[in-house]
Amino acid sequence: MIGPSGSGKSTMLNMLGTLDNPYSGEIIIDGINLGNEKDLSDFRRDTLGFIFQLHNLLPNLSVQENVEIPLVRTKLSEKEKEKRALTYRSFEAVGLLDKKDNKPNKLSGGQRQRVAIARALVNNPSIILADEPTGSLDSKTGEMVLDILKNMHEEYNVTLIIVTHDNDVAKLAERTITIKDGQIIEDKYN
Predict the structure, then answer these.
(1) Considering only 46-50, 72-76, 100-104, 118-122, which range has the smallest mean pLDDT?
(2) Where residue 166 sits, what CATH number does that domain have?
(3) CB of 122 closer than 8 Å to CB of 65
(4) How far apart are CA 111 and CA 174, in angstroms?
(5) Most buried of 43, 74, 112, 155, CB within 10 angstroms?
């Protein structure tokens, strides 16, 4: 999804991620009408991964503990070995296994964004929602982050929904939805 600041991109992403509710209409993902569900925590945990624009890493936790947050309420929390395997796989996907014991404030902005990607990947989601994943990064680090996302899409068959205002990022997508003033003004396959 692409559009200028204030166009409704992040609001749409939050509705897809069940963080906000629409005032009208329906959101149906994989046959589930999100408005009809009373408890969406299982859907979020089993289906969605989030990459927030500002990382949302907890400063008092290690990088590893931040990545494991989505696993806290899963059945895997009792199976430490499986949990570690998922965490390490996520770290390897973003190239940060050597930083797992660091606190977020000891990492660069690009490394923090890669930790956010590892956290989004750790629960094997089928959909990852990314809000301006390269917005606060320099161009070289932004390209690296986009390569990681592209590899996740190809290797793990993850659907990526990326919100951006950057035309170069939007050109990489298979489909581009342009939003302006809360309305879809264009929907095209690239």
Answers:
(1) 72-76
(2) 3.40.50.300
(3) no
(4) 26
(5) 112
Determine whether 29 is exposed, middle or buried from the number of CB atoms within 10 Å of its CB (0-12, 13-18, 19+): middle
Asked if residue 1 has pLDDT above 90, the reply is yes
Note whether residue 150 is domain-resident. yes
- Of 127, 128, 136, which is closest to residue 166 (Cα–Cα)? 136
Report the alpha-carbon distance of residue 186 to residue 7 in Å, rounded. 13
* pLDDT tens for each residue of 96-145: 889 989 999 999 888 888 888 888 888 888 898 998 888 777 788 788 87
Give the chain's end-to-end CA distance (angstroms, integer): 13
With a CB cutoff of 8 Å and minimum separation 6, the contacts of 79 are none
Here the tokens at position 10 are 């992040």
**CA pair distance 96, 186, nearest whole angstrom:** 38
Range of the domain at 117: 9-189
Please give the Cα distance from 81 to 107 (Å, whole number): 26
Handedness of CA 33, 34, 37, 43 (dihedral sign): positive
User: Count of residues for the chain?
Assistant: 190
Number of structural domains found in the chain: 1
Does the pLDDT at position 73 exceed 80? no
